[in-house]
Amino acid sequence: MKSSFIRPLLEVAVVLLLVLGAARWVSGLFSRRTQVYQTTTARQLRLLFWPLLALGAGLSVLPAVAMGATPASAFEWLLTGGFVLFTLLLSGPALLLHLRYWMLNHETTLVFQPAENRFEVYEAGQRIPFARRDLAKVERVTCRARRTFWARYDYLQLYLADGRVITLTSLLTELEPLASFLRSVPTARRAVYWGWV
Q1: What is the pLDDT of residues 12-37, one digit of tens each?
Q2: Is 161 exposed, middle or buried (0-12, 13-18, 19+ CB in 10 A)?
Q3: Is the full-model pTM beyond 0.90?
Q4: Is the C-alpha dihedral spanning 73, 74, 78, 81 positive or negative?
Q5: Which of 42, 66, 104, 115 has the most CB atoms around its CB within 10 Å?
Q6: Lowest mean pLDDT across 25-29, 91-95, 120-124, 148-152
Q7: How is residue 59 annotated by DSSP?
């Protein structure tokens, strides 16, 4: 009885997944690559998928142990606590970095068209006035810990001659093409274990 109900649901889910995937592929054929970068939901989900999945897996154990048919022993609580702690250690740094980067760039818009030599940064709808000649140096910070959930969180800081610093994070876009575009500006590259700005 139970499997007769689940099978049609799974079939509908697979058909929906195929239709949505095909629609996205077809729409991608006719769309133009965007040159304006903001903190989009799709980009955030791409960065947060694995940390949130790990956090969900870790926290899903708590209700199972707490609301079990029989009371859990101290050993079971110890194992549960260890598993939750382990998943928090895996996903916590990525979630903290994501929150920090979102606070820095949630109102930032980057317009980047290297073919037209166009590079502009807007903060809360207002253009931050600077030209390439105003850049004193660029600092590119990447993550050294390649096999972690926070490995894709990196940032680029633009130091202007008047003392202002503009921080662009990986929530906006992949930053390596931008760093290559600014290669004529003195660039300092650092690899850190955790890219806190």
Answers
A1: 888 888 888 888 777 776 665 668 89
A2: exposed
A3: no
A4: positive
A5: 104
A6: 25-29
A7: H
Average of per-residue pLDDT across 159-186 = 93
How far apart (Å, rounded) are the C-alpha atoms in residues 17 and 177? 32
**H/E element, 191:** strand 187-192
Angle at Cα 86 formed by Cα 82 and Cα 92, nearest 5°? 135
CB 94 within 8 A of CB 48: yes
Q: What is the pLDDT of residue 64?
A: 84
Beta-carbon contacts of residue 110 (< 8 Å; ≥ 6 apart):
36, 37, 38, 120, 121, 122, 168, 172, 173, 178
Whether residue 72 has pLDDT greater than 70: yes
Beta strands 155-160 and 135-143: pairing type?
antiparallel
Alpha helices by DSSP H, listed for 31-156, are 41-59, 61-66, 74-105
Q: Residues near 124 by Cβ (< 8 Å), separated by ≥ 6? A: 107
Name residue 188's beta-bridge partners: 139
Which residue from 107, 116, 126 is spatially nearest to 169, judged by alpha carbons?
107
